[in-house]
Write a structure and sequence with these properties.
- By secondary structure, the chain is an all-alpha fold.
- It has a single domain, classed as Growth Hormone, Chain: A (Up-down Bundle), CATH 1.20.1250.20.
- It contains 19 helices and no strands.
- Helix 2 runs antiparallel to helix 5.
- The two termini are 22 Å apart.
- The N terminus is likely disordered.
């Protein structure tokens, strides 16, 4: 029994059949879909929220980004430390119940301040989802299959994004914006029960004595000693700055600048983005696994190439004056944004060490959410407000064009990270 415990951190996937792995992944996919639905639904609801509370674009950026991200980031690290030592199934279940309840509170908010406070609660709850979920996936699947497993898992972001657009947009059009929050939050309570019943924690079989006993500072020292981890962290932060920060204003751009009805935006743009994300995630994950068998550095070089290609596409997207052309270019851009994302997490899990997975991912999301998601929408909104007196509604167009520039240093970080990967690997 001692031999099993000692080998467990790198061989936990041997405890489960292939069928069990995919069932667990399906449950974690649903959990993450709920996560991204409750996070992203606010993007399609910003227009009616602005009309009801009469707030500036800067405050909308604060609501959609910083108020969520700051508590997500600061709760994420201690929760991840718990996840590297405790029962990850329990953590995920509790987190899901909390953020679902707080999303319901968003739907019953009667003032902008109440809505912002509820969004803080959503951020705090969601901090307990992705790091322990990714840690479990890394235990469920062997290294040579992880990039594709993470690609499928990351499709949950697209599913949540689509549901946010369709559910949020259609509910807002027909029943008011509050109904969108209620429709997204209530199912999460039932999903929390399903998660508790179906998921398995490998540590209950192999023993909790096999988990990390390093203190928090030792974990951070070990992670930041690796150049690959440093560059990946900076790269993901810049990625969030644009993909989860500035792009939250894309629906508003279509409604305000291109004069597209909100209901049309929720269906057409949501569908295009989802198709692009599905094909991008699966394609990026598959080719990352395929090429990494020959040279592990491709796990970082695929993101570098994808984000470089996305840059000129998004420049063209935000210069568009046609909704149809915006959909074509925006879909192509989102394809490459998605294709580069899942290999990033496969890279981190390959270099962080089996004992530090949840903390490693939490560090990534701490920086990505606090500075990327937290500041991205806020800065976009501030630039738009600053330009509005002289440029009118076109100020939002120029704000989005400025934010697109962050894709170039994003690509450079992952290009450089690839060169250090062989020396930093620690499975």
């Amino acid at each position: 029994m001692d031999d099993v415990a000692n080998s467990a951190p790198t061989k936990a996937w041997t405890l489960y059949s292939n069928r069990q792995r995919w069932i667990f992944l399906a449950i974690l996919f649903l959990v993450s879909t709920s996560n991204y639905l409750d996070r992203n639904i606010i993007g399609i609801l910003l227009v009616p929220i602005k009309h009801e509370f009469h707030v500036s674009d800067s405050l909308l950026g604060l609501l959609s980004g910083f108020s969520f991200a700051v508590f997500y980031a600061f709760f994420g690290l201690p929760v991840a430390l718990w996840a590297d030592r405790g029962n990850r199934r329990t953590i995920i279940t509790l987190a899901l119940a909390v953020w679902s309840a707080m999303t319901i509170c968003c739907g019953i908010a009667q003032s902008f301040v109440q809505l912002a406070l509820a969004r803080i609660g959503v951020g705090a709850g969601e901090s307990g989802a992705i790091p322990p979920a990714q840690s479990l996936i890394a235990d469920y699947f062997p290294p040579e299959r992880r990039a594709f497993a993470f690609a499928i898992f990351m499709l949950s972001a697209s599913a949540g994004y689509l549901l946010g657009f369709v559910v949020g947009g259609q509910m807002a059009v027909h029943y008011g914006w509050r109904s969108g929050f209620l429709a997204s939050g209530i199912p999460g309570v039932g999903l929390a029960i399903l998660t508790l019943v179906v998921l398995r924690e490998p540590r209950t079989v192999i023993g909790f004595q096999s988990v990390n006993r390093e203190d928090f500072r030792a974990v951070l020292r070990a992670l930041f000693a690796k150049k690959t981890f440093q560059l990946s962290l900076v790269g993901l932060t810049l990625y969030f700055f644009f993909a989860y920060g500035a792009l939250v204003f894309a629906p508003m751009f279509l409604v305000r600048v291109l004069k597209v009805p909100l209901g049309t935006v929720s269906l057409a743009y949501g569908a295009v983005v989802t198709v692009a994300a599905i094909t991008g995630n699966l394609g990026g994950g598959y080719f990352a696994d395929f090429l990494a068998l020959r040279d592990v550095r491709w796990l970082s070089w695929i993101p570098a190439a994808a984000f470089t290609i996305a840059f000129p596409i998004y420049i063209g997207t935000f210069f568009c004056r046609s909704f149809a052309l915006f959909l074509c270019l925006g879909g192509a851009g989102f394809f490459f944004l998605s294709a580069g994302l899942s290999p990033v997490f496969a890279t981190v899990h390959l270099v962080c060490g089996a004992y530090r997975r949840a903390v490693a991912i939490a560090c990534m999301f701490f920086s990505a959410n606090l500075f990327g998601l937290g500041l991205g929408p806020l800065i976009t909104g501030m630039i738009s407000d600053k330009l509005q007196p002289t440029q009118g509604v076109q100020g939002l167009r120029f704000a989005l064009l400025v934010m697109t520039a962050s894709l170039l240093p994003t690509a450079w970080c992952f290009y450089r990270a690839g060169y250090r990967m062989p020396d930093d690997c620690e499975e």
